[in-house]
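dumping this here so i dont lose it
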């Protein structure tokens, strides 16, 4: 408001007083004779018209610039509103009773992360939470019921859970330095060949019989996890945390980055 008033006062002063000064200055520079009163007034009015036209042009340009700024702001607000709607719908899909709908919600979340970088951390955390809830270890349902379903899974995992882990492993939503918290999840028999799981945390998880061939497992945490009969052929295990991990029968052929042997796993007393 203050700036607008100041600009208005300055323009008013220029239009009122500057023309006479410009005409007088021009006469002095040219060294010509003094103008008659009528000619002087005509010259002053001509200069005033030019100044008014210039001021009008500046006001018009300012209006165009302000309109552009307001339009851009409105576009951003509208776009953010669209992302919020998409995010809310994807959350609804993830909470569906149908596996196919939840699977669609996973891919919707990945698309949101690709299109809106400021949502990436939220999407990664949400999908990790989704996996923990949908595939907990030990199972929340009767073990017999879960075991009866597992032979029908593709790649050892239900479609929605497998899709979420695959999306996380593509890392488009994983912010640098962030860890994906998948503690105490049931990944028995999971086919995770060549997945980038670096920095993930599988503490207390069950990966018995999982196929981790060629996976990047650097800085990954497997503390107290079970990897019995897991296939770790050609995996990268640089700085992986295998404290108290159960590697009974695991195939580590060609695995790289292995440090000292992990601490022995002790079965709980019965």
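and the seq i came up w/
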């Amino acid at each position: 408001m203050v700036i607008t008033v100041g600009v208005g006062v300055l323009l008013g002063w220029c239009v009122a007083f500057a023309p006479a000064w410009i005409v007088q200055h021009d006469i002095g520079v040219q060294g010509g004779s003094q103008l008659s009163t009528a000619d002087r007034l005509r010259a002053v009015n001509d200069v005033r018209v030019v100044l008014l036209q210039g001021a009008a042009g500046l006001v018009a340009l300012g209006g165009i610039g302000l309109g552009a700024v307001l339009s851009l702001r409105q576009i951003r607000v509208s776009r953010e509103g669209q992302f919020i709607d998409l995010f809310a719908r994807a959350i609804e899909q993830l909470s569906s009773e149908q596996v196919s709908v939840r699977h669609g919600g996973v891919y919707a979340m990945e698309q949101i992360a690709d299109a809106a970088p400021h949502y990436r951390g939220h999407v990664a955390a949400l999908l990790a939470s989704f996996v923990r809830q949908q595939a907990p270890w030990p199972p929340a349902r009767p073990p017999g019921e879960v075991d009866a379903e597992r032979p029908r899974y593709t790649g050892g995992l239900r479609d929605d859970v497998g899709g979420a882990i695959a999306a996380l492993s593509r890392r488009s939503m994983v912010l640098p330095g962030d860890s994906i918290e998948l503690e105490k999840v049931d990944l028995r028999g999971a086919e995770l060949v060549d997945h980038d799981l670096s920095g993930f945390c599988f503490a207390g998880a069950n990966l018995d019989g999982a196929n981790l061939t060629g996976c990047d497992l650097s800085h990954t945490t497997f503390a107290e996890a079970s990897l019995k009969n897991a296939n770790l052929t050609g995996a990268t295990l640089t700085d992986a945390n295998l404290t108290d991990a159960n590697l009974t029968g695991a195939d580590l052929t060609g695995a790289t980055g292995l440090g000292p042997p992990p601490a022995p796993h002790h079965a709980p007393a019965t």
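The CA atoms of residues 155 and 162 lie 8 Å apart.
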